[in-house]
Amino acid sequence: MKKLLGSNYKVSKVQISAKQFFILSILFAVGDAIIYIPSLMAQEGLHTMWIAGLLGIVQAFVIAFIYTVIGKRILNNGYIYTLKRLFGSWIGQLLTVLFLLYVMVDIVLMIYEMGSFIVTMVMPTTPIESVLIAFLVVVIIGARLGLETLARSAEILFPWFCFFYLLLVILNIPNINLENLQPLFEGSIYSIIKMNLPLASYLLETVILITLFPHINGQNKARSAYVMGVAVGVTLTVIISLLSLLVLGLHIIKISSFASYMLGKSVIANFFSHVEVTIAIIWFISVYFKITLCFLILAKGISKLFKTEDYRFITLPLGYLLYALAFISLPSNMYLSDFITSTWISYTLTFGLVFPLFIFGIGTLRKQHLHLKQ
Question: Which residues, including other chains, have CB under 8 Å from residue 285's CB and lie 6 or more apart?
């Protein structure tokens, strides 16, 4: 522990295995999506959300593959270094700041979602401020311990994540009502695409993980682990969404903010009580690693902007800043829901798709230009 927290710890030499990256990719892709995606996809009020879910699984393979190509071509030296090399010092730093702001906004949304879920569904008499403080303390500790420690922790907790996930699915199988899928092909292609957009927006957040590529042992295995991890994570989210539709019905998941949490309440078993806690455990594990990885990437990015060797000295003030922003920028749950549906989708499309493709295109053009000059 002393070695990890001491001043001689070299964060630039941190390496994790492809297997650990696979697990982190799954947990990151599941993240907060497993709680919110069923309700967001159901807002169109159509039973064909299952088609939008299947489309999301295909998108997961395609988008993850695109990200690995970008990671292979221009991110082997690090995200910030690549931006500076392609666009120069000033423009590169500006683009870095914009990307880090995207990560920061994502963290603020997730920590407020965490607090909102806890005080709404689990501990209604607890102030949300106390929940956020307790959670941010654990996030800061995890970020200070570093990527290697997070990866090992994910390996330990991942079997429990799988166990509770399977438990929730298996116990809900008797409650499935296939009539909730009817009509099977309701709506138009346009409506299916609209239902798919919330899932795609959460999927595009995995662009943040490409900043970790320089820290993975074995780049070929890392790329495969990333593609499969993101695809598995999205598939797990889609399964819960479809299970919510089959068990609860479209009307209930449309009006409920935490439809997947209600899956546990629908289970009636003599040997189990409060099965809804299983979805809470699944979500706590996945969202913790997602937030902590984002927090770690944000802290390291800021430290590199200011050319400091150790990122950990800014973790505590950064935690204070995120705590304040969570209440300043998100005054209520209604505002959060409106922001996610009206603004966040276009915002994450910009930084999750347009931004990396733009960087990749500029990098390819510059490489071809240098090749022609030679």
Answer: 27, 157, 160, 161
Residue 8 and residue 11: Cα distance in Å, rounded? 9
From CA 139, how far away is CA 15, in angstroms rounded? 20
CA dihedral of 172, 178, 182, 186, whole degrees rounded to 10:
60
DSSP state of 118: I
Copy the structure tokens of residue 112.
């407020």
User: Does residue 243 contact residue 169 with C-beta atoms inside 8 Å?
Assistant: yes
Q: Please give the chain's pLDDT, 374 residues, in tens.
A: 444 444 444 444 668 888 999 999 999 999 888 888 888 888 776 778 888 889 999 999 999 988 888 877 665 567 777 787 778 778 888 888 999 999 999 999 999 988 888 888 878 888 888 889 999 999 999 999 989 999 999 999 999 999 989 988 888 888 888 888 877 777 778 888 888 888 888 899 999 998 888 888 877 788 889 999 999 999 999 999 899 888 888 888 888 777 778 777 776 655 566 667 777 888 889 999 999 999 999 999 998 888 887 888 899 999 999 999 988 888 877 888 788 877 888 888 888 888 888 887 887 776 654 333 43
172 torsion bin: left (phi>0), alpha (psi -120 to 50), beta (else): alpha
pTM: 0.89
